[in-house]
Amino acid sequence: MPAYDVIVVGLGGMGSATLFHLARRGLRVLGLERFDLVHEHGSSHGLTRIIRLAYWEHPTYVALLRRSYELWRELELLAGERLLHITGSIDAGPAGGPVFEGALQSSRLHGLPHELMDGDELHRRFPGYRLPPEMRCLYQPEGGFLLPERCNVAHVEQALAKGAEVHCREAVLEWDVGSRVRVRTDRHSYEAGRLVVCAGPWTSKLIPELDSLAVPERQVLAWLQPTRPEYFLPGVFPVFNLEVEEGRYYGFPSFLIPGFKFGKYHHRGEVVDPDDARREPEPEDEELLRDFARRYFPDGAGSTLMLKSCLFTNSPDRHFVLDRHPDHPEVAIAAGFSGHGYKFCSVVGEVMADLAQAGETKHDIEFFSLRRFAATP
Ligand SMILES: Cc1cc2nc3c(=O)[nH]c(=O)nc-3n(C[C@H](O)[C@H](O)[C@H](O)COP(=O)(O)OP(=O)(O)OC[C@H]3O[C@@H](n4cnc5c(N)ncnc54)[C@H](O)[C@@H]3O)c2cc1C
Question: Is 151 a known active-site residue?
Fold first, then answer.
């Protein structure tokens, strides 16, 4: 049976980064991916992903984000390719709301550069935005977007250059732990000292203990043709997180597709089975998204150019799970990224490689432990 130091299951955002960090440390690693190297069944497709520092979700993420930016820049150098585009970012919402107040708290706590403005001032600075004047807006210059498909490929490419083995179109069916970890796929069986599970929406199919802690949810993204395309270019349109009465939304300038791109967090609240999710966007999806654009980005609300579905994997508190399996310390798990994980892939790869190699990491990941759910009734 072929034997490895570490097997990584899933080569999406987190798995490709983990494979890279393990391979660069000289470990014998195998990456197994059930679909193609680039595919649209999981969570890491759709051309762009927001990255930002003043993290409204919780200030504890900021330390990981700083390292994440560093590692993305390093990957760009290795790959010889631009993967991270800086546009600035906006976190906006009503005074007292979690998005604006959370971003402000993170900025103040970590001394991050930022500017505050109301909806009118935001429109004067960035004319694509038409938020109500009473909206509180935080602009942070380091915000921007990553190119997820290219980042995943760059991580795999660099891992291959360091001797990693990669098998795509090979699904892991089961694993068990004896003196070593054994992994059975739909093609072969393998052995390794350690296993890292980065299976995104499929996590609980491989780790049933995470059934209620990593719950897949259907999302839909829209690209609309702006009627004023010059307002939606990367130089004049920062990425955004926006809390309005209809919910929370995120968006991007036109890039690669000549359309204003955006989505609604937890879109229609549809929990799905990733093997049976409706992939084709529906008229209800489109209408929900177009209503938002018409109200807050009227110059971006022209005809629909593209719609794509994608999957979130939600944890109960919407924070990540970065930990070792409670009963099998040889198995590390990266899961529950709850719709905001991509920007962290580079640093999560480093954390997972630490957990697999040494059983611990210098990064502070206590906040992301599985133990936090044990007290939940
Ligand atoms: C619409 C949308 C917009 C988002 N926007 C942002 C954003 O702007 N910024 C941000 O930071 N985050 C964003 N996110 C979240 C982010 O994209 C995810 O958190 C991240 O991609 C999760 O990566 P992952 O590696 O966990 O999952 P995936 O990238 O889905 O990788 C999991 C991989 O495991 C493979 N796999 C599963 N089971 C098996 C098996 N049994 N055998 C072999 N392979 C297997 C899958 O095929 C898949 O390739 C967004 C997500 C969505 C859906």
Answer: no
